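LAB NOTEBOOK - FOLDING QUEUE
OPERATOR: T.R.
BATCH SIZE: 2
PURPOSE: Compare the predicted structure-token outputs for two unrelated chains run back to back under identical settings.
PRIORITY: normal
REVIEWER: second-year student, initials M.K.

ITEM 1
FIELD SEQUENCE / FIELD STRUCTURE:
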Amino acid sequence: MDRSLGVLSYLLLAVLALTLADAGFGLLEPANVIRVVSGGSTAVSGELDSPAEDIRSVGRPPPGTDLSGYVTIRSDSPDMHLVLSRIRGRLWNGRLTVDGGARSGVFSLSVHQRFVPPAANYRPFEVRVFPDREALQEDLPTFSERLLGVKPYWLTLVCLPAVAGLLFFSYRRARQRDRLYQERGFGVIHTLSRKAWGYEITFGLGRRQGVEEGEPLVLLDAEGRVLTEFVPRLVKADFGKARIKPTVPVTTDCLVMRRKPGADQDAGNLASTGSA
């Protein structure tokens, strides 16, 4: 069960990392790219070269008013039509429509305020026209959009709670396992780090489990065999720390056992503890 949880956790974390990387690839695409299917339309927005003072003078136009007459629109395709529905300062919004039967390809579209020279760094829109939705989807910038037809952030939103829930469940299960071992006088190794002088371990036995400063403890392998005895260098309420010689084959599967009467249990009980 624990091994399956670990594999599932790694898989979900890998999927989460892939969705984040995929979203990053999507951000690399220039903002001036527009995709549209022949015979369809899409919402577009952009910036003018300077604030549209002449548009402010007309006040707030009624909804649905075409404001395209206040700007200069240029395109190298006669099949594209841009209708502006809103202009506020330099920002504008509108809808680009492509006639049915328009040829596929990449076309240019530029929007400028009338009587204002275009900025030197102005980049026209790159409008990509496709014959159908399938061809458009194959051109999308992210793998999730091309393969599944969904934005990568939707996959991220699905994976995040799944990973969080699995980590919480794994934490609860690990705590239950630790308590079960502690009730039988054993402590699980929580951390294992290699040092120049050997190993440093943190284990799940402390003062609440009856361990005292200077009390000798026993290190067992996963099969219950004694590897070595040691004295912890630090004893806290629910855990302790110790240094182990470099010649001892210590792993995170090892257990720590008390030597005191009543807690010095037969190492053969480890099998039943681990399977519980």
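ITEM 2
FIELD SEQUENCE / FIELD STRUCTURE:
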Amino acid sequence: MNKTNTTTKGKNRQRLKKIIRNGNKIVFSKALREELINFMEFHCSRRFSNNLRTLLMDFLMSEGATEANYLQDLLYDLQGLFSLIDVIEKDRETNT
């Protein structure tokens, strides 16, 4: 893991500590809850996930993409987003 990922993880942990209330319970702001609900209601998570993965693959196959110095961080961040999208889709399938 490079220094940038370590620094970013440290900052994320600090932000998460500010969010955590009442022991292990995470409390989201009203704006974040509303935006997440809005996304889940009005966007097809399966289509979004497929399109985003296709876009990523197209980018990676393009000439010079492997030389991008931010690629490692991008892949790490996108993996987290893909995990979130997968959970949203599973939740939607379970609750419909």
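REVIEWER COMMENT (ITEM 2): The chain has a mean pLDDT of 78.
FOLLOW-UP: none requested
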